[in-house]
Request: fold
Amino acid sequence: MREITSGVVHPTIRELLSYATTMEKVDYELARYIDSSNRKLYEYLLNDEIVGFVVVRIITSQHDEIKHIAVLPKLRGQSIGSKMVKFVCEKHGLSLISAETDCDAEEFYRKYGFEVINLGEKYPGVKRFRCEYKVG
Reply:
């Protein structure tokens, strides 16, 4: 995995981010990550090809929040997402990692071992979940 530290973002990252948010919000979200000192964007490489990414917001020295995580559709189910979560936990020395998600990613977090709490319809017609994983 490699941290993206410059304003130059590979087109694959844009594609991956579009899976995690709407296409209209891609540039806005990328600008937030690149311009923020408490957000880190990491790309996952397989055979020198970007196949996944994760963005975390640093809350404290022991707690990060996953803001976005995505893997190319053709490679989902191959533990890449889990490897990215593990990488962030180890790199940042976390005792807690959390996320808020919708129905699409709830099962991913549950399989990894996150405690998943149903928040109900946070937005009309959109069920949201709070996910927390205590590391160690």
